[in-house]
């Protein structure tokens, strides 16, 4: 093995030089030195399918220039913010013989930020001050688990806040008297519901817009990927606008209804819309809350009552009809 990990020139029969120089071959340590990656990283890339397996020669595993180029491609894509899963998709498209230009543009649109918010840094002291001045390690740990806070890699007493608006909401709720544990629980519940909305929006747009690009059998061409990226850029704000509009409508409707229920009054004189406060045994309400959740308990009790009223009304009508029929038969 010559300097730099390249093998010495090989000679053919009779001492004549073989036609053309042999392809370079590197041991894994040489490949790590030339690429800037560690031996452990190279092996991890192989296990994930990002890097082809080396050529086996006797007892040695040897790598070529193709491996070096691939490692540099991966490093470049990581620097641009792509995840390893996205990089694998891109490299598979490359290996299939298609250019990366359009595919990179599509992945950049999908994998890029879906909000105009910019992350900020906050010290632990400032964080404690904003939440009343009393340190709460459990609440901070839960915020890190939820991704509301991210430990800063260069300072153990500093956090990165991906969404300053989300943190501000938590600060306001806590200042209004909501415990931090309740805020975290509410966020977990809300996140599950929002992820369901996002999944449905993606299914909807995939079915009606992107099906011609993502048919599940053939990867999009470079031109198709570029066109799909342009569509993502145009349609991206629609999900946010739709959710904002529908949330405003629902909040207006439900907030008024909730206020009327709490006050036991109704703006309209129509007796059918009037509400009254009714005492329900605590054990019964706990059972209902376990069944449908605290937020839906009042609605469940109301609907169950209405159903019971309708059932009894039908029974009374049926009973009256039977009594009338009996009188007709005896007369």
Topology:
Layout: H1 28-35, H2 39-47, E1 55-57, E2 60-62, H3 65-79, H4 84-95, H5 100-111, E3 120-123, H6 124-130, H7 137-146, E4 150-151, E5 158-161, H8 164-175, H9 180-210, H10 222-263, H11 282-292, H12 297-330
Antiparallel strand pairs: 1-2, 3-5, 4-5
What does this structure look like?
With 331 residues, the chain is mainly α. Among the domains are: 3-79, Multidrug-efflux Transporter Regulator, Chain: A, Domain 2 (Orthogonal Bundle); 113-194, Multidrug-efflux Transporter Regulator, Chain: A, Domain 2 (Orthogonal Bundle); 282-330. It has twelve helices and five strands. It has helices at residues 28-35, 39-47, 65-79, 84-95, 100-111, 124-130, 137-146, 164-175, 180-210, 222-263, 282-292, 297-330, and strands at residues 55-57, 60-62, 120-123, 150-151, 158-161. Strands 3-5-4 form a three-stranded antiparallel beta sheet. Strand 1 (55-57) and strand 2 (60-62) form a beta hairpin.
As a percent range, the share of strand residues is: under 5%
Q: Return residue spans where pLDDT drops below 50 for at least 5 consecutive residues.
A: 1-18, 267-272
Distance between the termini: 119 Å
In the sheet with the most strands, the strands line up as 3-5-4
CATH topology of the domain at 113-194: Multidrug-efflux Transporter Regulator, Chain: A, Domain 2
Task: Determine the structural class based on helices, strands and strand pairing.
Answer: mainly alpha
The share of residues in helices is 55-70%
**Mass-distribution shape:** elongated
Label the CATH architecture of the domain at 113-194: Orthogonal Bundle
Mean pLDDT: 78
- Radius of gyration, whole Å: 33 Å
Highest-level CATH class of the domain at 113-194: Mainly Alpha
Please summarize the sheet with the most strands. 3 strands, antiparallel
- Number of strand segments: 5
What is the element string, with H for helices and E for strands? Answer: HHEEHHHEHHEEHHHHH
Count of DSSP H/I helices = 12
